[in-house]
Description:
The protein has 351 residues and is mainly alpha-helical. Helix content is 71%, strand content 2%. A two-stranded antiparallel ribbon has the order 1-2. Strand 1 (187-190) and strand 2 (193-196) form a beta hairpin. The protein is globular, with a radius of gyration of 23 Å.
Amino acid sequence: MTATAPPAHDKAGPIDERLLRTSPLKKLLGRPELGSVVGAAAVFVFFSLVADSFLRTSSLSTVLYAASTIGIMAVPVALLMIGGEFDLSAGVLVTSSALVSSMFSYQMTANVWVGALVSLLVTLAIGAFNGIMLVRTKLPSFIITLGTFLMLTGMNLGFTKLISGTVSTKTIADMEGFSSAKKVFATFTVGGVDIKTTILWWIALVAVATWILLRTRFGNWIFAAGGADGAARAVGVPVARTKIVLYMGVAFCAWISGQHLLFSFDVVQSGEGVGNELIYIIAAVIGGCLITGGYGSAIGSAVGAFIFGMTSKGIVYAEWNPDWFKFFLGAMLLLATLLNAWVRKRAEATR
Length: 351
């Protein structure tokens, strides 16, 4: 009588799940941006059917530009949300960056690049302030950045009226360096075609942020800090430093957006930017970021911004009343959140 040998894995113990092969379908279901990609396809098809001019090249370029102006800020906001925090001052910080650059250049009669550099230093300092206040006081980021939002809103208006005498800055279009700065931050021409540089900035930021999240130790720190900061500290993750850097990342992108605002129109209204912080957060959430942190992607934030661009311009091309835009944006937020939650549950169930 012969004995049947037990399976090889019984002798060696259970197989490490990290060594198991994962099917392409399971990998796809595990991607945070899957729900937003499905939603983007649905929105694209919808407006292609209801708006005759939506598929024109000029219309699609306008959609892409609108998406890029939101997407530049949605990328760092998404990383910050993955890290478990919010920034309610991001919208007005864009305006603050533009105001500092404009007023410093005009009042000091300096090259506009000098004003842009000063603006970068000031904007990064504000981002660092948010991060340091968060880690030192242990207060919720909602409270910290809400306070910064209110202070910046008042400072933008107060300093602009004090220095310029009005609620807007003086034009800097005739100053040295303006044309070169405009090419970097606003528009440049290739073969007679105007190209919006925000689109290039957006693509570059998405690529860099994706690389950071998926290929670097700092990306692991972001996920760990957002998932469970206490456990992350226990295994040596520098949670405080990570969150400060994330806030400075938001500030850096706010500087880019602010310079685009300035060099596109050469003047800045001090009251601009209020409410945009919610749009950045919405784009990140539609893109798959969880409110609770620890989950999301930079690519998802780009898809969320693209959905925003398609909706904002698609309503115009369909000749609907633009007053309904916020309704559609809110509906998309709820639907995208439900879809993302369903996709995540399906992904966890297939593991």
